[in-house]
Structures are given as structure tokens and as C-alpha cells.
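TASK: fixed-backbone design
INPUT:
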């Protein structure tokens, strides 16, 4: 007599290779979806960098709000409002009292640098060295349009250049380059106006995102954690908190470093009597936000500006620059930044080089905080969770 099995124990129809084929289909769909996500992120990379800059501002405002809470036991909203008003007032005061001086010195500095660059070009030509970047623009015959800049006809169009040349070309790509065509049609004045509106729009977006994130950072963190499986939510929350703390320490350390470089450079160049000392110190402090590459650019500008004041002033400016960089490299960075972010200089330079070639100015400016985030991810997810080792070792 044949045995009868209940329906619940009967073998399902179509059993066999169907589950395996279904698994392959799901894997294929996941791969295609991930590739589409990467393509979308690549096409909107400028917007993503803009959002990341807003998050950085939010982390900074949140840190100031927490510091104020240690001396002022008030609500978070009140403390954030006081911090925001203080920063806005400080910015407006700097623009009102120092804006005219900075603009005048900047204009004079631009003329001095252009003149000294021409002098350097002529001296190099006397020795048979022709530097393309310092070549004088060719004048077009009467009745003809000015020729475009010299370009190597052998270089294929649309191909990106690697190395330092690619980094320089990428740095010239501003986030508002999408409006360049309109500027070329409307003329130089319209290009300036469009660039100003584009920069102002980027600043407003960063400020809005920063204020929104700083107003209630826990809500954004918990909202992101909800997309993680329940068993991993505590680890995800700790990971996000670790990234925020690392960025906060790095930002405070970087601001202290920039302020010290600005004051020391300004004081040293003013003592030497070099014109435009304020704007030279300001650009040195701002460019210190970009390690390795920023100080080199600031040094070149200082040397070109000091050439107009004679050999003694030039040697003094070089001495001031070397002294400030020694203080930054061997004094400020080891003691201020090492605890927040310990990344070898060669790794920082390589990361800036790659991100600058790929993403232009945004990649150069935000390379270090991005590398800080990546370091936290690798330390906690790979070294601690996968290798089960101590990330601090």
C-alpha cells in the first residue's frame, strides 16, 4: 500500500534549479542597480561634494554648540542661534572693516604678481628657457580675432591628463562651470556676474545644509541608521558618531592652524615692509586648508609679491615663509592634528592628486576630510570587525 504524505510535506512544484536561477537573477539586478547608482553619483559629483561641504559646516556648528553648552546651560536651539549669530556678525565685521583693504591690496598684488611673472619670463628667455605658462599672449593682426592659447595638436581631445598636469587642469574646473557657455555668449562682465551668483548660491546651499544638520544631528543619524538591519544598528550608530567626532576634531585643529599661519605671515611680511601683507597672510591662511599643495601655492605668490621690494625683502619673505612652514609642519600639525587624523604625508598627497584630477577644485579642497571619513570606515569596519584587531595599534 503506497504511503500518503500530507500536502504540507509534498515537494513543491518546479523544485530544482529554480531557486538557484532566481538567486542569479537577483544578483544580476543588484549589480546593475549598483552600477546605475555609481553612474548617477559620478554625474552629480559636484552636488555630492556640495552636500558634503554642508555636512562639514554642520559638524563645525555642532561642535561650537556643544562647547558653548559647557559654559552656558541653555537649550540647544538657543545655543545654536547664538553661535550662528556670532559667526555671521564676525564675517560681516571682517567684510565691512577689512573688505576695502583686502580688495585694494588684492588688486595691487595681482598687478605686482603679473609684472614679476613677466620679469621672470624674460630672465628665463635670456637663458634660452621658454616657459609656456608664462608666455605672453600673441597679438592678432588688425581685423582678426585673437588666437586661442597654444595647444599641443598631438594631444587627443577629451582625454584627461594624469599627474600634476592633470591636477592643475582639474583645479581650474570650478563647481559653477556649467554656466561658462552662457558667460561666453553674454560677455566678460556677464561671466563675472554669473560666477559671483554661482559662488553665492553654493555658499547659501552650504549654509542652509550646515544649519539644518546642526539643528538636530541625532534625527539625521537615526534616519540613516534605520536603513541598516536591526542587528547592526548599534554598530552603524557608533560608526557615524566616530566619523562626526573625527571630522569635528580635524576641523577645530585645522582652524587653529590656519589662524596661526595667517597671523604669523601677516606679522612677518608687515615687519619687512612688503606691500599687501594682509592679503598675503590671508591667502596663506586660507590655502593652509589644503595641505601639501596649498602652502606651495601660497609660497609662490609671496615670492612673486616680494620681488618688487628688492633682494633683501625677497630673502626676508622666503625666510618668513620657511619659518611659518616649519612651525606648521613640526609644531602645529604633530600636536594639533595628529590626535584627530594620523595619515602619512605621502598618502595625503597621493589622495589629493587623484581626487584633484578626477573632481577638480572640489576634490582638492575636500580631499583631507574625505580621507578622514574613509580612514574611520576602514578602521572600524575592516580592521576591527573583519580582522578583529585593534585599530589604534
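OUTPUT:
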Amino acid at each position: 500500500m503506497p504511503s500518503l504524505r500530507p500536502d504540507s510535506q509534498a515537494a513543491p512544484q518546479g523544485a530544482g534549479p529554480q531557486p538557484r536561477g532566481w538567486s542569479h537573477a537577483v544578483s544580476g539586478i543588484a549589480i546593475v542597480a549598483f552600477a546605475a547608482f555609481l553612474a548617477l553619483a559620478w554625474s552629480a559629483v559636484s552636488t555630492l561634494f556640495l552636500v558634503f561641504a554642508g555636512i562639514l559646516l554642520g559638524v563645525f556648528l555642532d561642535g561650537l554648540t556643544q562647547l558653548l553648552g559647557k559654559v552656558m546651560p541653555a537649550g540647544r536651539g538657543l545655543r545654536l542661534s547664538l553661535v550662528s549669530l556670532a559667526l555671521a556678525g564676525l564675517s560681516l565685521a571682517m567684510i565691512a572693516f577689512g573688505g576695502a583693504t583686502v580688495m585694494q591690496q588684492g588688486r595691487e598684488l595681482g598687478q605686482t604678481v603679473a609684472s614679476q611673472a613677466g620679469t621672470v619670463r624674460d630672465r628665463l628667455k635670456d637663458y634660452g628657457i621658454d616657459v609656456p605658462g608664462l608666455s605672453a599672449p600673441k597679438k592678432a593682426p588688425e581685423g582678426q580675432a585673437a588666437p586661442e592659447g597654444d595647444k599641443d595638436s598631438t594631444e587627443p581631445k577629451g582625454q584627461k591628463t594624469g599627474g600634476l598636469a592633470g591636477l592643475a587642469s582639474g583645479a581650474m574646473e570650478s563647481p559653477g562651470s556649467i554656466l561658462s557657455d552662457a558667460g561666453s555668449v553674454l560677455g566678460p562682465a556677464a561671466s563675472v556676474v554669473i560666477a559671483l551668483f554661482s559662488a553665492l548660491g553654493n555658499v547659501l546651499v552650504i549654509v542652509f545644509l550646515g544649519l539644518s544638520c546642526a539643528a538636530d544631528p541625532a534625527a539625521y543619524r537615526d534616519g540613516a541608521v534605520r536603513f541598516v538591519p536591526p542587528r547592526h544598528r548599534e554598530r552603524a550608530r557608533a560608526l557615524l558618531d566616530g566619523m562626526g567626532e573625527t571630522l569635528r576634531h580635524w576641523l577645530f585643529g585645522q582652524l587653529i592652524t590656519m589662524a596661526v599661519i595667517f597671523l604669523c605671515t601677516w606679522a612677518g611680511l608687515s615687519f619687512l615692509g612688503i606691500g599687501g601683507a594682509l592679503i598675503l597672510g590671508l591667502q596663506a591662511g586660507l590655502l593652509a586648508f589644503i595641505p601639501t599643495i596649498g602652502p606651495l601655492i601660497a609660497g609662490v605668490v609671496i615670492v612673486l609679491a616680494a620681488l618688487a621690494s628688492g633682494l633683501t625683502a625677497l630673502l626676508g619673505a622666503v625666510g618668513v615663509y620657511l619659518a611659518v612652514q616649519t612651525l606648521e609642519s613640526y609644531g602645529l600639525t604633530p600636536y594639533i592634528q595628529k590626535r584627530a587624523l594620523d595619515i602619512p604625508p605621502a598618502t595625503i598627497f597621493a589622495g589629493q592628486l587623484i581626487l584633484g584630477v578626477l573632481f577638480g577644485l572640489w576634490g582638492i579642497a575636500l580631499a583631507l576630510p574625505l580621507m578622514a571619513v574613509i580612514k574611520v570606515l576602514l578602521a572600524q569596519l575592516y580592521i576591527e570587525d573583519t580582522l578583529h584587531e585593534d585599530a589604534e595599534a
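COMMENT: Confidence is low (pLDDT under 50) at residues 1-18, 135-143, 145-164, 171-183.
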